[in-house]
Amino acid sequence: MPVRKYLSVGYVTKPQGIKGEIRVKPLTDDMYRFDDLDEVFLKRQDRYVPVKIQRRRYAKDFVILKLEGFEDRNQAETLRGEYLWISREQARPLPKDTYFIADIVGCRVETCAGRFLGYVTGVLHTGSNDVYVVKDKEEVLIPALKKVVVDVDVENSKIVVNHEELEGLLPDED
């Protein structure tokens, strides 16, 4: 799986008011991240189309955006349920040993001994650490801790885990 060129930064929940604004649930660690963006992308089939951000404001856990070309509530309604994207170049640099969820989901997971466990289908945020949801025949929850996750190779979509740290969490081998 190649590295994704675009990353989602928000999800449009609904229109806000009658002047074309939209309410966006941020998908980033810092909701004020939108202050640094002049544009976002909308996905249209297999293309990403840039749309200029005209204004932004914040309300509780949401960002309210006014995008160019969306002038009333009916036009804003067409964006309900859509993701807003940025190019990878617009993404903030990550600290060492941290990864974009988009780069983790889809990775093949195996143990140090080479046992295939499945593919990452999601990431749960537990507060203390993330947990990778890995599925093959069965679902396995793998804590994203340094002592458990030995290697993450985003380029080759592969994660290696220390099976000794997962005692009792892994299904029996066939």
Structure, described:
The chain is elongated. 5% of the residues lie in helices and 47% in strands. The strands form 2 sheets. It has a 6-stranded antiparallel sheet with strand order 3-4-5-2-1-6. It has 174 residues and is mainly beta. A hairpin with a 4-residue loop joins strand 8 (116-125) and strand 9. The longest helix is centred in the middle third of the chain and has 5 residues, at 73-77. The protein contains 2 helices and 12 strands. The mean pLDDT is 92. The protein has 2 domains: 6-90, Elongation Factor Tu (Ef-tu), domain 3 (Beta Barrel), CATH 2.40.30; 101-166, PRC-barrel domain (SH3 type barrels, Roll), CATH 2.30.30.240. It has helices spanning 73-77, 101-104; strands spanning 6-16, 21-26, 39-44, 47-59, 62-67, 83-87, 108-111, 116-125, 130-135, 139-143, 149-153, 158-161.
What is the average of the pLDDT values?
92
* Helical percentage: under 10%
Number of helices: 2
Could you say how many structural domains there are in total?
A: 2
Order of helices and strands: EEEEEHEHEEEEEE
Strand content: over 45%
Biggest sheet overview: 6 strands, antiparallel
Which stretches are low in confidence, meaning pLDDT under 50 for 5 or more residues running? none
**DSSP strand tally:** 12
- The CATH H-level superfamily of the largest domain is RimM
Helices and strands: which structural class? mainly beta
Distance between the termini: 27 Å
